[in-house]
């Protein structure tokens, strides 16, 4: 390999046409345009989410720390990986040299690992909050949170170092994919299967187990709540207006509101995980069930869904959480906030007035969500 250009020419000419050469030019042009749109939306949405979470104390909690880590990983995916994906769709080959052929897949797999581990950490946080609330203060101290986030990044990239140094597979041009990926080394070894099991199957199983337990705990809690309310209604002694009864009712209402808020966040995290599965499973199924590319549209759709995973999370935050919408409004501090129904009338231009309007909209949204049946 004398230089980067010779490396690309030698690889593409010796291995024959890539998988992308089997697709129609119009389909690949469409995929390149859509990938460009996904990249722009992902860059803006994830950057805005990070700024909003850092700027708005209302949503700056433990889960927000892991969401910021997730957004940074998705932002890097959009900024570093997707431009090369657009180039691959457009040119139907790899034309960026040997060094980037190693670096880009290293970053791609690393960011995917960080994303899934961040979702797993958020789910674990929701599980401990709901099912083992007494542990929460001991587990989620500042240094523990920092260690969890650092671990997710170091583990995701660290487990690829053997492949990077070509001890267990290697990062190289894959002629079947038409891009750079993990390929077998000179001994025929590849880390793809192990990485899939360790970085995808294990976190996915952890998330599934946590949500199974969360649903069970919430179901049992709702049952006990209904039984308690039924017993109070049927027992004549509980119909008086004593101070103890009022305090008990106020406490029950507060616990119900707090549990509803935690459950609302938990459902949002579940939506994030399900969107991750929807985005990653199609391309996996396509590679296994149609490895000879008889259905090109299926493969291109799988690629686009894979790339869309980097921009879909901010959309979920906006749709499912009024506090996040208010945080976005505080970050933007512009009339766009009116589009989400957070305020009415002219939106204030000064930062202080903007923050006051956002806090007012938060209270209004929270009250409206609590009085829903």
TrEMBL record:
What parts of the sequence cross the membrane? 27-54, 61-86, 106-124, 145-165, 194-216, 268-288, 300-320
Gene source species: Manduca sexta (Tobacco hawkmoth)
Task: State where the protein is found.
Answer: Cell membrane
Q: Which CDD domains match?
A: 7tmA_GPR84-like
* Record membrane topology: Multi-pass membrane protein
In Swiss-Prot or TrEMBL terms, this protein is called G-protein coupled receptors family 1 profile domain-containing protein
Residue span(s) of domain G-protein coupled receptors family 1 profile:
45-317
Basic and acidic residues biased stretches: 244-255
Q: What is the lineage of its organism?
A: Eukaryota, Metazoa, Ecdysozoa, Arthropoda, Hexapoda
Give the UniProt family note. Answer: Belongs to the G-protein coupled receptor 1 family.
One function term, GO molecular function aspect:
G protein-coupled receptor activity
**Where does this protein have compositionally biased stretches of type Polar residues?**
232-243
Instruction: Give the record's GO CC terms.
Output: plasma membrane
Residue ranges of region Disordered?
Answer: 227-255
Q: Pfam families recorded for this chain?
A: 7tm_1 (PF00001)
Q: Mind listing the UniProt keywords for this protein, alphabetically?
A: Cell membrane, G-protein coupled receptor, Membrane, Receptor, Transducer, Transmembrane, Transmembrane helix
């Amino acid at each position: 390999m004398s230089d980067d250009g010779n490396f690309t020419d030698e690889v593409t000419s010796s291995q024959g046409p890539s998988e992308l050469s089997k697709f129609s030019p119009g389909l690949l042009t469409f995929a390149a345009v859509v990938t460009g749109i996904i990249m722009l939306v992902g860059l803006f949405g994830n950057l805005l989410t990070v700024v909003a979470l850092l700027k708005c104390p209302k949503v700056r909690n433990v889960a927000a720390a892991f969401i910021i880590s997730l957004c940074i990983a998705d932002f890097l995916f959009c900024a570093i990986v997707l431009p090369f994906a657009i180039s691959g769709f457009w040119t139907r080959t790899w034309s960026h040299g040997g060094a980037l052929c190693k670096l880009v897949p290293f970053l791609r797999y690393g960011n995917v690992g960080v994303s899934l581990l961040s979702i797993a950490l958020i789910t674990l946080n929701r599980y401990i909050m709901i099912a083992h609330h007494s542990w929460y203060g001991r587990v989620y101290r500042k240094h523990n949170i920092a260690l969890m986030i650092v671990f997710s990044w170091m583990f995701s990239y660290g487990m690829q170092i053997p492949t990077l140094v070509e001890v267990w597979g290697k990062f190289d041009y894959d002629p079947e994919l038409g891009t750079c990926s993990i390929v077998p080394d000179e001994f025929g070894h590849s880390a793809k299967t192990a990485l899939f099991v360790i970085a995808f199957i294990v976190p996915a199983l952890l998330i599934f187990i946590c949500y199974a337990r969360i649903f069970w705990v919430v179901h049992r809690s709702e049952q006990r709540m209904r039984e308690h309310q039924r017993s109070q209604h049927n027992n004549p002694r509980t119909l008086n207006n004593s101070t103890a009864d009022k305090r008990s009712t106020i406490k029950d209402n507060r616990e119900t509101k707090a549990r509803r808020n935690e459950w609302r966040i938990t459902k949002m995290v579940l939506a994030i995980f399900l969107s991750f599965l929807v985005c990653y499973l199609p391309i996996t199924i396509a590679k296994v069930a149609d490895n000879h590319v008889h259905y090109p549209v299926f493969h291109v759709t799988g690629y686009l869904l894979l790339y869309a995973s980097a921009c879909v999370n901010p959309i979920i935050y906006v749709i499912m959480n009024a506090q996040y919408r208010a945080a976005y409004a505080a970050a933007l501090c512009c009339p766009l906030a009116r589009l989400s129904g957070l305020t009415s009338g002219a939106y204030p231009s000064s930062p202080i007035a903007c923050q006051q309007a956002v806090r007012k909209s938060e209270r209004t949204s929270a009250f409206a969500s609590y009085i829903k049946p």
